[in-house]
Amino acid sequence: MSGLFGWILIWLLAKSLLNPTNPLSFLGFKWEPAIHTFISHFPFESFAPTPNEDAYHAILPLIDEKLDHFFDKTIKEKLPMISMFIGDKTVVQLKAVFLEELASLFPQIIQQFSENAKKEMTRTLASKLILVLKPIVMKSIKPLQWMAFVIGFIWGLMTVYLINHI
Question: What pTM was computed for the model?
Answer without folding.
Answer: 0.47
